[in-house]
Amino acid sequence: MPLSHLRPALPATPAPELAAPALRAFFAIAERWKLKNAQARRLLGDPPESTFFKWKKSQEGSLGRDTLERISYVLGIFKALEILFPDPTRADAWIHRPNAAPPFGGASALDRMLSGNVADLYVVRSYLDAQRGW
Fold first, then answer.
1. Is residue 6 part of a domain?
2. CB 74 within 8 A of CB 26
3. Can you give the residue ranges of the Antitoxin Xre/MbcA/ParS-like toxin-binding domain (predicted)?
4. Long-range contacts of 59-64 (CB under 8 A, 24+ apart)
């Protein structure tokens, strides 16, 4: 089965109008997941601290393709969890719990996502989509 549906379809140069809604959604999810600033920054690909805090405060700015791709995976992970766990508290807690499934090896999904590699966001998204039957 092709996995092309998992990879966000992003233009070579992200459209500036995508930045503000993407950042608003990302920071809303980060708040729901109770992420520390360092964790949220890591999920975004470790932008400079000044850039991160500017994005967090204004929830707008210029985003590169890598950052937009990362946000897209986070949105997909969030959506999959909302589908799998209709109780928002349970859905939001899932990423923090240890998981014995092969992609996690006893660590949490958040631990996997915080490795810094965009591929690890992809792995978590793929795992959740498989659990949904996609």
1. no
2. yes
3. 80-133
4. 59/20, 59/23, 59/24, 59/27, 60/19, 60/20, 60/23, 61/19, 61/23, 62/16, 62/19, 63/14, 63/18, 63/19, 63/22, 63/23, 64/14
Domain count, the chain: 1
Tens digits of per-residue pLDDT, 57-106? 998 888 999 999 999 999 999 999 999 999 999 999 999 999 999 999 99
pTM reported for the whole predicted model: 0.87
Amino acid sitting at position 96: H
102-134: per-residue pLDDT in tens?
999 999 999 999 998 999 999 999 999 999 887
Distance CA 127, CA 56 (A): 29
